[in-house]
Structures are given as structure tokens and as C-alpha cells.
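Case study.
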Amino acid sequence: MMISETMAAKLNEQVNAEFYSSYLYLGMACWFDGQNLKVFARRFFQQAEEEWEHGMKILKYLLEVGAAVQLKEIACPKQDWKSPEEIIETTYNHEIHVTNLINDLMRAAVEESDYATQSFLKWFVDEQVEEVSSMNELLALVRMAGPERIMLVEQRLAAMMG
Ligand code: FEO
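After joint prediction, the assembly is written out as follows.
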């Protein structure tokens, strides 16, 4: 095995955290769909797929370095949302939380002089900057529009997604 047991355990935890993010965003996508906010729904279905890919990326790294993959239970996410603003705010806070998890992993890799894992994690560090920034932008738009003009955010989101 090319990485330590401790690092392998931490990366396995992160696989679970990414799959949980996927599950959380999947539930949000379904809520949006139920509210007929189809563009928000599309954005969150897409995000759920991306989070699944993040988990898979780490899982494949574990296999590549000869570490055991340990799949853990994925917690049931909250699904009773009150408003689009609540969802976007929760997502923004969740991405800050995930950024902290990635930073903790990077710190551990630095402390262990594990250069392979540091190099691998760099992509995630960059990805988190992008994800926190885009959720921050979306949160500002949702707050600016308010509940009555949420359809305007749908239109803007549709244009941003292409
Ligand atoms: Fe996998 Fe949204 O971070």
C-alpha cells in the first residue's frame, strides 16, 4: 500500500462524505422538481451527479494506491425544505463544510509527507473554490430576487447553465 492506514481511513471517510453530498443534492433536486422549479432541479440533479463522481474519484485513488475501500452507510438527508433560499443557504454552508474536510485531508497529507495524496487532493482544493464561489453567487441572486421573483433566478440559471 502506497499510503498510510490513517490516510486510507480518512480518504474512505471522504468517499462517504461525497456520496452523502450527492444524496443531499438529489433530495433537493426532487424538492425543486415538485415545486415546478425545473431549472433549479436540473442544476441540483447535475450537482448530485458531480458529487457521486467526486466520491468515485477518491474510491479509484484508494484502489490505485492499493488501499482497501470501505463503503459505509450513507445517512438519510433532510428533505423537508421551506424555500429555495433555505436550500441554497444550506448548500453553501455544506460546501464550506466539505472545503474544511478537504483542507483537513490536505493538512494530514502534508504532515505525513505523503506527496502522492497531496498531488491527488489538489484537484479537490481547486474544485471547492469553484463550488463555494458559484453557490455564493446563486445565494446572492436568490436573496436579491426574493420569493416573488424566483422565476427570474430560474431564467438566469438557465442562461448560466447553457
Ligand atoms: Fe464534492 Fe461539492 O464537493
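Observations recorded in class. The domain at 5-161 is CATH 1.20.1260.10 (Ferritin). The two ends are 43 Å apart (CA to CA). We will return to this complex in the next lecture.
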